[in-house]
Specification:
It is a single chain. It contains 8 helices and 8 strands; from the N terminus they run H-H-E-E-H-H-E-H-E-H-E-E-E-E-H-H. It is an alpha/beta fold. The protein starts with 6 loop residues before the first helix and ends in a 5-residue tail after the last helix.
Amino acid sequence: MYSEIPYACMRAYALLFTRFGASRPFAQSELDFVLSGSMKKKVFSILLNAGWIKKRGRSDYLCNEPGEVIRHLLDFKVPEMMGKAQKPYAFSGLSAIELWSDYSYTQRSTERSPYFIRVLRRDLPYWKGFFAAKRVPVYIGKGTSIGEFAILLPVTRLEHVEKGGLSVEPLVDAMAEARENEMHYYAYDYMKRKYGRKHG
């Protein structure tokens, strides 16, 4: 469940930026002649939450520069978001290898940046809403997207530990997965040296 910026919002941003640039303030009333009251509020809310415009004072707004808007579409948000999660989770699989190896193995790029996250099956509605609210594509079991996205792995029981402020599957699980794939041998070797042989 991932909601893209609606086309109407993009057109509203284009209109506002064309008329006011990034330095002249404007009010919601600037769109009175093209949008109904409820639609106008929705458009402003979406643009504000997406970072395309910013609030300046009680009723004034400013457009952010288009270059900023585009650049931030591919920002990495998930690790910071997860610190605010209200339900239990555990980074898993390749994401756990990444964390336990102190990023000696990394799967991040602006083109493709998956996060594999175990969550309790009963909490799936929460997690879908959690990621949708920040416009991060989310899939159950498998999926792919451009940029950052989350793949939720539903489980009935969740085992996790804390590492660097994030919940992650236990080290022994990450090491076992890294050991099974020679592409991850460098990360496995790093973890073995750092944490000792007893874990993997």
